[in-house]
Amino acid sequence: MDSFGSLIDGFGTALTPTNLAFALLGVLLGTAIGVLPGIGPAMAVALLLPLTRGLDVTTALIMFAGIYYGGMYGGSTTSILLNTPGESASVVTAIEGNKMARSGRAAQALATAAIGSFVAGTIATLLLALVAPLVADLAVEVSPADMFAIMVLAFIAVTSVLGSSRVRGLASLGLGLTIGLIGIDATSGQQRLTFGIAEIADGIDVVVAAVGLFAVGEALWTAAHLRRRPVQVIPVGNPRMSRSDWRRSWKPWLRGTAIGFPFGAVPAGGAEVPTFLSYVTEKRLSKHPEEFGTGAIEGVAGPEATNNASAAGGLVPLLTLGIPVTATAAVLLAAIESYGIQPGPQLFEDEPELVWGLIASLFIGNAALLVLNLPLAPLWARLLRIPRTYLYAGILFFASLGAYAANANVFDLFLLLVIGALGFMMRRYGLPLLPAIVGLILGPFAEAELRQALQISNGDLGGLIDPMSVVVYAIVALVLLFPLVRRVLPAKAHVPVLDEAVHELEEAHHHHGTTDAVSVERRPSREDPRDDG
How far is residue 368's CA from residue 28's CA, in Å, rounded to a whole number? Predict the structure, then answer.
């Protein structure tokens, strides 16, 4: 009952005129930016992050929650209509959704995606309200050694998700950890990796880094592969589902929620693997398996529900442990930290109004998105006709404006360009962005937990070993060894659904040009006909 009472108080916070207005503004902006080709929710949040610096922290995070969910909704639109996923978790939606659109059922594909996202998001947010306080109560007892082990698990997980290139993931993580080390060492007071530049003695601003990696890097990458061709957008009618569509969609919505939330809630989760598991599950359970590959509505309903349930589940480790499991959650963590607040076990005790107002706003944003997305689907489709030359020029302008506004420092503009160039090179060589941003944000906190654990044990490495940390390190070993074990296992020992999901994952990555399982951006090739102007 405590959770429900706190949630009611949260609605009192979220329904104030100011917070409600910014929640609606967030879902509008998130959907609009998420709809635009090549822009996922992570980039949408990063781009708008500097613009909220003057807002109250609760109001700002409620707005970002709206942008978060709005970007998830918008990503399905571009996947279905343009076959262009804005993020890797939307790849599977494009597989069946674009086939439905090309066969004249774009409206039905958009409708099942929107309604499924609403159903999954609502159920998953309710589970978040129930589960997060319990996890926070348990996390209070976690020692520094255990917390360090959990962060190591998060580092390894984001570089070792099924279907990913581990070497590239580790390289990206190393870049993020290196950037996170820049600044003054809190213990010795010595400068690290500053090269005598006074402007970075306090470290790299996470907001500038996030905007540079996601917004500027993506804009430079797209400009380098731009082709001046008119965008062929499939026309959208009134999104409406027939009785048959409802009958075929409601079970995938529920199954997708059941698959997505646990994956998101685990500090090794993410949305890509569960969306492919959902797709394979629906393909196996469908009464119309022959339609898969030609436009099966179950192939849109299940993965979209999974994607949104995973997004809500990802807020569990973010709020209770301060560990992001997706790129969007990492940018949200940067937003929270920019206000001097560190998510973790004490957040529910120290900032109850903030936490419960945020959770309540998710319900409001979810309902608002359903109301907005169904009637306004034709309007969102028109946004896809914006020439990319104008689109990315605008992104660079607002990214520069936001980076300068963050600290009113001209040096930040130079830093933004350097980090944007780094983001471009990472895309060029297939390095995913998620490990870099996670390493950048969590690296300093992992270092602090490591030092505290060693101080408690007087420098004895045995102080890093607790009963809980042993379990976590065992999980780390399993994650690292899983690809090798999977190769040597006999075929009968494999899990058919998981194996098929991995196969579908690799095929979709090859088809859509995504770099790997933890990449949050689309890597267009030079021959990709979708990279038009």
Answer: 9
521 contacts 218 by C-beta, under 8 angstroms: yes
Residue 123: which pLDDT band, with cuts at 50, 70 and 90?
A: very high
Provide the sign of the torsion angle of the four alpha carbons 89, 91, 97, 101, taken in this order.
Answer: positive
Q: Are residues 532 and 231 in contact, defined by beta-carbon separation less than 8 angstroms?
A: yes
| 57 vs 75: CA distance, rounded Å | 27
The model's confidence at residue 514, banded by pLDDT at 50, 70 and 90, is: very low
Q: Are 194 and 201 in contact (CB under 8 A)?
A: yes
How long a stretch of residues is the chain?
Answer: 533
The yes-or-no verdict on residue 523 having pLDDT over 70 is no
Distance CA 374, CA 132 (A): 31
| Per-residue CA distances from 242 to 39, 289, 371 (Å) | 31, 20, 18
Q: Are 27 and 373 in contact (CB under 8 A)?
A: no
* 487-519 exposure pattern, b = at least 16 Cβ within 10 A, e = fewer: eeeeeeeeeeeeebbbebbeebbeebbbbbbbb
Find how far residue 371's CA is from the centre of its chain: 23
Show the tokens assigned to 163: 């279907």
Interatomic CA distance for residues 304 and 92, integer angstroms: 9
Beta strand pairing call for 183-184 and 191-192: antiparallel
Over residues 17-74, the pLDDT tens digits come to 998 898 888 888 888 877 776 666 777 777 777 767 678 888 888 888 888 888 777 7
362/56 Cα distance (integer angstroms): 18
Q: Where are the domains of the chain?
A: 2-512
Q: Under DSSP, is residue 184 helix (H, G, I), strand (E, B) or coil?
A: strand
What confidence score (pLDDT) does residue 489 get? Answer: 61
pLDDT in tens, 472-497: 888 888 877 876 766 666 655 555 55
Per the CB < 8 A criterion, the answer to whether 219 and 396 are in contact is: yes
Q: How far is CA 487 from CA 162, 207, 229, 370, 505, in A?
A: 13, 41, 44, 44, 17
pTM for the model: 0.76
Q: Check residue 295 and give left, alpha or beta (phi > 0: left; psi -120 to 50: alpha).
A: left
* Strand (E) or helix (H) holding 61: helix 57-82
Task: Characterize 468-485 residue by residue with b for buried, 16 or more Cβ atoms within 10 angstroms of its Cβ, and e for exposed.
Answer: bbeebeebbeebeeeeee
The secondary structure of 428-494 as a DSSP string is HTT--HHHHHHHHHHHHHHHHHHHHHHHHTTT-GGGG--HHHHHHHHHHHHHHHHHHHHHHS-GGGS
